[in-house]
Here is the input.
Amino acid sequence: MPKSGSVEVHHPAAQRHDPIEELFEDVFWVHGSMRVGPGMRINRNMVVLRDGNDLTLISPVRLNQEGEAALNALGTVKHVVRIGPAHGYDDRYYVEHYGAEFWRHRIGGRYLIPKVTKELAGGVKLPVKGTELFAFEETKFPEFAILVERDGGLLITCDSLQNWVNRRHCSLLARIVIPFIGIKLNTGISPIWKKAMTREGGSLRPDFERLLELEFDHLIAAHGALCRGSAKERVREAVDRAFDG
Ligand SMILES: [Fe+2]
Here is the structure.
């Protein structure tokens, strides 16, 4: 049960989202959205991992009343994990409302609250059994991915790799703008993310080559939708396209 119901007024309200959906056993997602500017609404996703009765939220998205009731029916929110520095808008809500542990790199990124209680770094063991943390090492700011080691392997990313299949939960303006910033309907490395994360004279290719050594068939990111099957081949193509082109 939530630890407090009195703090909700201090947190951003839920934004438009779909119901929670199970992708694999004990792996759920919410396809939601976020208003990022006047007339600009884009999709964003939360992944929920269940281990026993404990829930771990990755890239949290606040839910409406019905959605939160469905989340509570799945288990107890125990952990909130931030794997990309540009996401975190709803982290504070979950951490304060549920008294959850908050996992992130010591460098907070865009959102400096809430305070970290479990530092993420390469080699850190995550609170969900059968998962592995992948740390990008060449990026300007801390970015991670999570591998769920079953069902052929599910790779969970934030902004680095995205898999767009449609423009659902994107406003008309966003639908016009997004293709122009290089986000196509495919599996790809976000050009904006790549530019922002690459150090002068550096390359992120070694990180992606290391990522490709992981065993995974599926991919889900903080934007887009699930890539079910053949994800590794698609990521291989995305990496070649991003760094050979
Ligand atoms: Fe993002």
Q: What stands out?
A: The first helix runs from residue 65 to 74. Residues 117 and 180 are 39 Å apart (CA to CA).
